Amino acid sequence: MDYLGVTLLAAIASTIIYGVVQASSKGSFNNPQALIYIGIGLALLLVYSAYAHRHETTVVLPLNLFRHKNFTGSMLGLLLAGFITSGPMILLPLFFQDVRGQSVILAAIALIPQSIGMLISRGSIGRLVDKIGARWVVIASIFVTILGTAPFIYFDQHSSYLLIALVLFIRGIGGAGIVQPLMSDPFIGLAKSQTAQASIGTRMMQQVGGGFGSAFLATIVASYTANHHVTTTLGLTSAYQQAFLWSTVLIIVILIPAMLLTNKMKLEIRELN
């Protein structure tokens, strides 16, 4: 058991997440506590890299896993996926409460269409990944997720809930189409002995990405309300719209690591030739 490696990975994840949480609570990343803890996390990452380089065969998360393009793409994608899953899942209930004036229970009920979209699409997504590979499933799902996120840049307290429910349903399908392949594709091409190590990497990156995505989008809202001295519903609406704008932009960025994922269509074309 690599106790030192596990300790370093836990320390890296916890310090970076705590740093971004401090940024969220202060309404800005430009504060000493956030910068110190994020800096400590990055320094520990360098320490772990040196340690893993010296103990390639026994380290809990070997760096040679990143020689596989699909593993690297999945890790980067999971980091950015926090802006699709955890981040908006904090914003959406607050949007319904602060902007539309709904209770906590009604805000939770309002999000049901998104869960339904995720649920009914899981089987189809799995079959598509098996058939054409994760790359094109994720790329297509990115555009679906944009369709399910960008409208929130314009939604306000007067927007029809039926329209919002439809957008949430689409968003659920797109989100599942991104996260599900990113969680499975890292294991393609790995030896059985590397499966447990890859699993640690995916879980860690998912946790860090989720914490970072949540804190970043919450910081956007907090910073906007503080800088504009927001006291009205109209001002709060603008703050949430800004956060959803950033979320939409960061969804697009996932296209970059998506190009590193498995492409079974390319393999089929080669076999035909």
Structural key phrases:
single chain; 12 helices; cell membrane; 2 domains; Transport protein; transmembrane; 76% helix; transport; 273 residues; Growth Hormone, Chain: A; mainly alpha
Write structural notes for this entry.
With 273 residues, this protein is mostly helical. It has helices at residues 3-26, 32-54, 69-81, 86-99, 104-110, 112-132, 134-147, 161-184, 195-227, 233-253, 255-258, 264-272. It folds into two domains: 1-60; 66-272, Up-down Bundle (Growth Hormone, Chain: A), CATH 1.20.1250. Helices cover 76% and strands 0% of the residues. The N and C termini lie far apart (47 Å). The relative contact order is 0.17. The mean pLDDT is 87. It is found in: Cell membrane. The chain crosses the membrane at residues 35-52, 73-96, 102-120, 132-155, 161-183, 204-224, 244-262.
Topology of this protein?
Elements: H1 3-26, H2 32-54, H3 69-81, H4 86-99, H5 104-110, H6 112-132, H7 134-147, H8 161-184, H9 195-227, H10 233-253, H11 255-258, H12 264-272
Count of structural domains? 2
**Considering the protein shown, what is the CATH homologous superfamily of the largest domain?**
MFS general substrate transporter like domains
Number of helices: 12
Instruction: Name the overall outline.
Output: flat
The total count of strands amounts to 0
> Given this structure, which CATH class of the largest domain is correct?
Mainly Alpha
Which CATH architecture of the largest domain is right? Up-down Bundle
Strand composition percent: under 5%
CATH fold node name of the largest domain: Growth Hormone, Chain: A
Please tell me how large the radius of gyration is. 20 Å
What string gives the helices and strands in order? HHHHHHHHHHHH
Structural class comes to mainly alpha
Main beta sheet, described? none
User: End-to-end distance, in Å?
Assistant: 47 Å
Domain Major facilitator superfamily (MFS) profile: 1-266
Protein name: Transport protein
Organism: Agrilactobacillus composti DSM 18527 = JCM 14202
Pfam family, one: MFS_1
